[in-house]
What we know:
Helices cover 36% and strands 22% of the residues. It contains seven helices and eight strands. A four-stranded antiparallel beta sheet has the order 1-2-4-3. Strands 5-6-8-7 form a four-stranded antiparallel beta sheet. It is α+β, with helices and mostly antiparallel strands. It has two domains: 88 residues, Endonuclease I-creI, CATH 3.10.28; 92 residues, Roll (Endonuclease I-creI). Strand 1 and strand 2 form a beta hairpin.
Amino acid sequence: MKFTARQRAILAGTILxxxxxxxxxxxxxxxxxxxxxxxxxxxxxxxxxxxxxFNGAPRQITRxxxxxxxxxxxxRWQSNSTPELGYWHAQFYPQGKKRIPEALAEMVQDSLALAxxxxxxxxxxQIQKHxxxxxxxxxxxxxxxxxxxxxxxxxxxxxxxxKKNKGFALFFPVAETKKLHALIKSGMLPIFTxxxxxxx
Length: 200
């Protein structure tokens, strides 16, 4: 199967965010979505964007936190395996560990990719009116690649911010946050309105 431009944008956004591409053979891989209890609508939306990949319905899973011992529920949905996803695994997991590829700018040319990435890992401060896009445990060089790709494709001047034990994040000051939210608003689901500024 071949992914459409829309599907490629969603793939890029979700792999950069909470998605995971799992290798299942020499050339094949599958896509896994995992989202919290309150985000079932979101995981269903993601799966429906790939009707040939996802069958059945997502599963609800209970996990016990190793530190607090508290249990919490989340949703998981795994796709069928395909060589097309094997290609995406090679781009983002070249040595088995997730990384931000050099060619990221070519993968996030559509604002929908940015919207999905932000729905997954974005944060908006209602008080300070700025935003973060969390990158996780990547290198400073990879964080710079992400910042440069967003600047080149969307004209957004994000700054790399070291969140210490949380890894790197892209920081959007107030003016850049307004531009970011105006750009991605049409691609975001209503359940994520809290991540958007109410003033254009």
